[in-house]
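PROTEIN DATA CARD
Card holder: NUDIX domain-containing protein
Chain length: 151
Origin: Brevibacillus halotolerans
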Amino acid sequence: MGGERFTAPVTVHIFLRKDNNILLLRRYQTGYEDGNYSVVAGHLDGGEQVIEAAIREAREEAGIILKPDQVTITGIMHRLSNDERIDFFVTATEWSGEIYNAEPHKCDELAWFSIHDLPQNTISYIKKAIELSVSQSDIWFNSYGFDNKEG
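Structure generated from the sequence above:
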């Protein structure tokens, strides 16, 4: 039976919300989904909790300060694209500081969009996660990309 155990990258995505609007960023020169909209996000570094990773990524990408009690886990997605991934989605509606593009070498636009009218070029699994977060009052779980079916 030996051999290596399966591992999957783990990512946290932050839904920064103001009323019915969500902050999206357009990816730029990253080699992944460039030109398409996503949300502030990043991989867990290991040895950090999901909320800690969200706080770190919000600071690194959008220049804002989140406190742990301002971050709520919204959903979890088991996703298959080029590889298999686990994605956590969190929401924050309050923060300290002014949002700005802290990584212009990876993002060429930060903008607010209605959660009901997302840009056509929003990454598909991000769009699905936003839709689930809007329609669910509890934490949701979704499998996405397996057998070319959405969960």
